[in-house]
Amino acid sequence: AVGLAAAAYFACNFILVGLAVALHGRAPVLATLYRALPYQAFVTLALLSAAPLVVVVMDRSVLLVLLFLLPLTAIYANAAMSLNREYQALHDQLTGLPNRTLLLRRTADALTAAGRSGGRCGFLLLDLDRFKEVNDTLGHLLGDGLLQVIAYRLARSVRPGDLVARLGGDEFAVLLPAVRTADVAAEVAARLRAALAEPVRLEGMSFEIEASVGIALYPDDGATVEVLLQRADVAMYLAKDRRTGVETYLARADHYSPARLSLLGDLRRGIDRGEFELHYQPKVFLASGRTAGMEALLRWRHPHRGLRRTGLGLPAVPAVLRRLAQGRSTVAARHGRLLRPARVAGCASDAAPRGDCGVTCSIAGRRCSHPATRLGLLYYTRSPRGPQPAHQEGVRCILMRPAAEAAPTATQLPCGG
């Protein structure tokens, strides 16, 4: 009878506590009970094992039972401190959402379960658009309040069993342990963006938040947690570039392959070793056949692959200077070296015909705003090419940036000549 009473007590307490925890955390009930079973069983067994001691002590004097209060209080306080430390280690302090550690752990469990059942999982990566402007303009205190509102909305916009986590800064992730198709994941992403689209009022001001969401699916896009995270990140930046808001991972749009990274390393070393050559392409008037000028094109003579004109994972990077590692600031700092007047002069004096013609050089707009590139362009425009003073170099810089960013570069270049 005592054993049955103990079992009934444990079952009722375990189910009720587990159900409350699952409902509070919007987690699956069965998964929550499964994870809590070892801990709850150990605690219940420890408490029940003290029952014979309580009976013996009460046989002597009821007042002696008070001696159990101090050790039991110490055990309870230690257990509460342990649970609090575990919660802090697995949750974001600002928003209360699960952090990266808990997200990766739950994702690994979901992938394992999906692998056994043959199901699919979804992984969403969400980044707030232009959130940095809020922090820079109004301060981090208001930005933190905005993040708390966003976290609350995201947590209330997912399905029961889905997990919303904050990875850091203005980046969030959502784990969908069970999805049938990519359309289901896209519907969840659209619901998240709709929840964020409602204006947020803080400190008497109204904010409209937009987000870009990238989707990766298991096992379609990756079989491990790290691969899913990387490919959801690729899809998220694709959504930013296309301004579509939501994008599913596309292998053909993923340029971040190991071969590309290796080629980027070769590219940087090639610039330092002088493996790039300037070739000149004439521009001719069709009516008269007279040469109007020359366009400087950059070619890469790779030590193992030979003279490269097209991509190998870097589309047209070795072929045209304006495409030289576009978006790579580490390579952009070397633009000044590529535009050194002595090197341009040496190639141009041999390749360009005598007469009034200039050399044009196309450079990506984002690189024109880089200080090192701008300095190289100024040197380039100021230096004479060879002994004939009539030969001047002209630089055509394609500026596809906002006017406020392009103005300093546009005003400096004419001053250089």
From TrEMBL:
Domain GGDEF residue range list: 119-254
Tagged with keyword Iron: no
Record keywords: Membrane, Transmembrane, Transmembrane helix
CDD domains from the UniProt entry: GGDEF
SMART domains noted in UniProt: GGDEF
Occurrences of domain EAL (ranges): 260-417
SUPFAM superfamilies: EAL domain-like, Nucleotide cyclase
Transmembrane segments: 6-25, 37-56, 62-81
Protein name: GGDEF domain-containing protein
Organism per entry: Candidatus Aeolococcus gillhamiae
